[in-house]
Amino acid sequence: MERPGHAIAALALTAAFTAMPAAASNTCAAAETPLFTCNTTNGKQVLLCDAGDTLHYTFGKPGRPPEMQLKVRREEASTWQWEGIGRAISYSINVPNGNTVYDVFWSVDRMTDEHEVQAGVNVEVNGRHVATVRCNADSVEQAMEGVDLKPAS
Fold it and tell me: Do 3 and 11 form a contact (C-beta atoms < 8 A)?
């Protein structure tokens, strides 16, 4: 037999947790395609998801509310795709937010035996580089190759 007090308490807890901001997740929503995810060298997480008409960029500590969440229309974002020449295979996606651009990047040195991976986010404000957030190479997952976005300029 269910007690009325338990039902009210359960409802109150459900309402309280629903009102809280969502914790940062290491996955994209079911209808989204993950383009990039990594754990940074300072214990945070970067997540870039393709939701069709929009891209979703999330940054913050795993398991906590995100420090930043951006939803950008697809036509506002851009990409740089490796052209098949040079030492490094590299891809990036630029996520604009006003006068700031978050350049999510991944590259691998194809000329060394180690095939060192470099990945992270370059932050530009008013066209000037202000920061680079580096990823732990062993945590990077990326699917930026061939993404259907306008070319970065």
Answer: no
